[in-house]
TrEMBL record:
Family: Belongs to the ParB family.
GO CC aspect terms: chromosome
Taxonomic lineage from the root: Bacteria, Pseudomonadati, Campylobacterota, Epsilonproteobacteria, Campylobacterales
Record domain ParB-like N-terminal: where: 31-124
Keywords per UniProt: Chromosome partition
Recorded superkingdom: Bacteria
InterPro entries associated with the record: Chromosome_partition/occlusion, HTH_ParB/Spo0J, ParB/RepB/Spo0J, ParB/Sulfiredoxin_sf, ParB_N
One annotated GO biological process: chromosome segregation
Protein name (database record): ParB/RepB/Spo0J family partition protein
GO molecular function: DNA binding
Amino acid sequence: MKSSMDRGNVFLQIGEDRKKATLLRQRMAGQEVEINELLENPYQPRMEYKEESINELADSIKKSGLIQPIIIGVVESKYYIIAGHRRVKAYQKLGYEKIQALLRDYTLDEFKRVSSSQTLIENIQRENLSHLELALAFNRLIDNGVFRTYEDIANGIGKSEIYVKKVMSLLKLCKKVQQEILNGQKIPLEVLEVIAKIKSESKQIEAFERYFKKEIDLKAIKAEYLSNKIKPKNTPISFNEKKGIVSINLSQYTSKDEAIKAFTAFLKQM
């Protein structure tokens, strides 16, 4: 038989389990948290927010309330925003001190992977990242150890691996072309992918500018900048073994003596 002390310990354990279960339900259902306790997500690809967009969201929240709670990652007792950065900005704009949130407990490694995937997916769904910005974001995720391969990225964001490879190829663009894209120049991904294959930096810039000015199309870029046609060698001396004839192109030499010297050297090699 169990002693009264043993039975007491059992009841205490049951009480603790109930508290944990209640806390877990609260976290999953959502609870209000102090906004000033929230920390920015260090693994978010993009940290710039348009003032106009935040104002519009603030007006919507003021009229209709918060439709969806934000998601917070709890790592070592610190609260990091995983999803809902814009909603937090809007709440701050309205002067609110608390916001409804769903809390998720993570280890640091889990937080890196989950938060980076979530913020990337949010941005992709809002379509506010250019292909180059995505490439830079993907590269950052790999550097941070969140993803290891292109396949990991594809699975994390719900895109194909081929798409990820095309986007990542834009990192081969020279700095000037990259800056033009970041400044807002709209060029299709398939065009940028081809320009990125051009080895010469000056030729990349030239092809980019010509396409932007509509002086050239994708097909022409491939033909002019990526053509691997080998030009026929203009050999000054040749020998037709079948006919036994040696031919010499005198126009390739500046003097008769130079031609004779070259012809003599050619005969010695036969």
